[in-house]
Amino acid sequence: MRTRFKPDRGLTGRMLATTFLLGLLYVVFVALLIVLTKSALVAVVIAGALLFSQYWFSDRIALYAMHGHIVTPEQAPELHGVIDRLCALADMPKPTVAIADADMPNAFATGRSPNKAVLCVTTGILRRLDANELEGVLAHELSHIAHRDVAVMTIASFLGVLAGLTTRIGLWGGFGRSRDQNATVVALTVVLVSAVVYALSFFLTRALSRYRELSADRAAAILTGHPSALASALTKVSGEIARIPSRDLRQAEAFNAFFFAPALAPGLSLSSLFATHPPLERRLDQLAGIARELGEQG
Fold first, then answer.
1. Model confidence pLDDT, tens digit, residues 112-165
2. Residue 135 assigned ligand-binding role
3. Are the beta carbons of 124 and 105 closer than 8 angstroms?
4. Residue 192: inside a domain, yes or no?
5. Which terminus of the chain, N or C, has fewer Cβ atoms within 10 Å?
6. What domain range is 92 assigned to?
7. Distance between CA atoms of 44 and 53, rounded to whole angstroms?
8. Which residues pair with 120 in a beta bridge?
């Protein structure tokens, strides 16, 4: 789908590379497990069914988990109005609009394609941001939809489940009850292979997630022409999230990869390698550079 969002060849290349590497990784993984235990076939079938369900119904699953509900233009005229303007500016289909009743200020986009996408904002972010800041956040989320990285992340983030699922089924159903002397060696081998596969897929997915957030920031800032508004929204949302009790944030942490700002964010340290989002400072520095390029005042 061609839109007026600035193309990002770096993002496209990373999505293709990540998808290829993950696919290759899991083909090798499944092949090794089939050699070790036939029960791996059961895991592959189950994981495949779950992956299909998550991909096809990702929008419904996300809304249900976040207690979100679809709203009409009559129910949320200002929100719809901003999204209408941005979609016209970007020349892209309008996604389904939803609101989640949550105090945590955030937003996310989900769906298997631009024509089946959902853009959801929390009541917390609607209360805290002004019109320009909200426009920047919504443009950021629309960029994810236009670049199709939402669907790629939905698939990539799920693939790690296969390693653990296959291992459990193998241990319980295949050689877990075997009295053969080689059973222990086989079990340890499966666990080791599974751990390596999970670790590699984890780091590949997290690296893609961090880059796509920077890409969405760039695209949104250029489309709206107001990088400072998006920077202000980032600063405000991150500050407000920091004030929310950790217990409440952990309940939403599973959606970190899809949020505008992470529920729990690491600092500038080795932990950044495990993060779904780049550090706030890096995002703000990038937006400041775009503002200078565009000659934005204030």
1. 888 889 999 999 999 999 999 999 999 999 999 999 888 888 777 666 666 666
2. no
3. yes
4. yes
5. C
6. 9-19+59-150+179-294
7. 14
8. 98, 108
Q: Please report the pLDDT score of residue 44 as a whole number.
A: 66
Establish if 246 belongs to a structural domain: yes
Q: Calculate the CA 181 to chain-centre distance.
A: 44
- The answer to whether the beta carbons of residues 77 and 97 sit under 8 Å apart is no
Q: How far is it, in rounded angstroms, from Cα 181 to Cα 186?
A: 10
The residue annotated as part of the active site, out of 74, 78, 133, 141, is 141
Q: How many distinct structural domains can be found in the chain?
A: 1
Please indicate if the annotation marks 144 as binding a ligand.
Answer: yes
Q: Give pTM, 2 decimals.
A: 0.84
Assigned token pair, 157: 């983030």
Nearest CA to 208 among 18, 58, 5, 22? 18
Is 238 a member of any domain?
Answer: yes
Phi-psi region of 121 (alpha: psi -120 to 50; beta: other; left: phi over 0): beta
Q: Do 232 and 296 meet the contact criterion of CB atoms below 8 Å apart?
A: no
- The dihedral built from the CA positions of residue 281, 282, 285 and 286, taken in this order, carries a sign that is negative
Decide if 51 is inside a domain: no
**What backbone phi and psi angles, to 5 degrees, belong to 108?**
-155, 160
List the CATH number of the domain containing 102: 3.30.2010.10
